Amino acid sequence: MRCAIVSDIHGNRTAFEAVLADLRQNSPDLILHGGDLADGGSSPREIVDRIRDLGWPGVLGNTDDMLVRPESLTEFVNQTPQLKPLFAVIEEMAAVTREALGEERLAWLGELPRAQMRGPVALVHASPDSPWRCPMPEATDAELEAVYRPLGRSVAVHGHLHRSYIRSLSGMVVANAGSVSLSYDGDRRAAYFLLDEGQPIIRRVEYDVEEEIKALAGCGFPHADWIARSLASGRYQAP
Fold first, then answer.
1. What is the DSSP-derived secondary structure letter of residue 77?
2. How does 214-224 read in b/e, with b if 16+ C-beta sit within 10 Å?
3. How far apart are CA 231 and CA 184, in angstroms?
4. 183 with 191: CB under 8 angstroms?
5. Contact call for residues 166 and 182 (beta carbons, < 8 A)
6. Is the pLDDT of residue 81 over 90?
7. What is the torsion angle, in degrees rounded to the nearest 10, for the CA atoms of residue 38, residue 91, residue 187 and residue 134?
8. Residue 198 reports pLDDT greater than 90
9. Is 204 in contact with 187 (CB distance < 8 Å)?
10. Over 90: is that where the pLDDT of 83 sits?
């Protein structure tokens, strides 16, 4: 089986179309999405509609959860004091995305499951217990095993961090699929995960970052300059 996992699109249609073109060339048997579909980009409606048209199974991301249940952001920030200065900025962006999506798309997002189990692959957005928290790429083998081995699959994949990695543990692989948009590892290309006949691979895909930045500037999305700086640098930038 050849399985692709596409995660953290964040409303970036320019990057998503480039990833779709790469997927057509690679022709996986199964494509899953890892959540965080809409918030943080110029085209939230278009991305949600495209994923639904494609019929990709997927999971609920933390920003999807935030759009559907605004209180989930409050709960997370209350547990993560260092994020409190960002709360107003993130909520302002989320409010605009909610309005753009409308009730029917939000209801669809809210029905996404927390996990997908397909053959040897388990997919969650962050961890089995939460779409908001997961080990960092620098975590020890023991930490990764404690979180992902209970999924009971030989390959456990997640998104959320915007930093791809593949770790071989005893009897299993844990991987971060990376992100289609807003890469935080210094490489501003889109990323997705491909399991090719048992071989895990991170695919990196060039796209026109400047075109997406122009789309952001013209769509009226709040704090578009913040998103644009992160897109341009391939790293997280403070607002």
1. H
2. ebbeeeebeeb
3. 9
4. yes
5. no
6. no
7. -90
8. yes
9. yes
10. no
- Cα 131 to Cα 124: distance, rounded to the nearest angstrom: 7
Q: How far is CA 179 from the centre of its chain?
A: 5
Confidence band for 40, pLDDT divided at 50, 70 and 90: very high
Cβ–Cβ < 8 Å for 9, 40: no
On the question of pLDDT at 115 being above 90, the answer is: yes
Percent of the chain with pLDDT over 70: 100
Q: How confident is the model at residue 94 (pLDDT cuts 50, 70, 90)?
A: very high
Amino acid occupying residue 49: D
Compute CA 82 distance to the chain's CA centroid, rounded to the nearest angstrom. Answer: 22
**Structure tokens that stand for 57 in this block:** 């199974």
Residues in the chain: 239
pLDDT on residue 82: 86
Q: What is the DSSP string of 157-191?
A: EE-SSS--EEEEETTEEEEE---SSS--SS--SEE
- What does the pLDDT read at residue 87? 92
CB neighbour list of residue 137: distance below 8 Å, 6 or more residues apart: 161, 163, 165, 176
- C-alpha closest to that of 89 among 99, 77, 78, 80: 77
Residue 218 to residue 178: CA distance in whole angstroms = 27
Q: Which residues pair with 158 in a beta bridge?
A: 176
Rounded distance between C-alpha atoms, residue 153 and residue 171, angstroms: 9
Whether the predicted pLDDT of 1 surpasses 90: no
- Cα angle, residue 161 at apex, residues 27 and 9 outer, rounded to 5°: 45
pLDDT at 128: 98
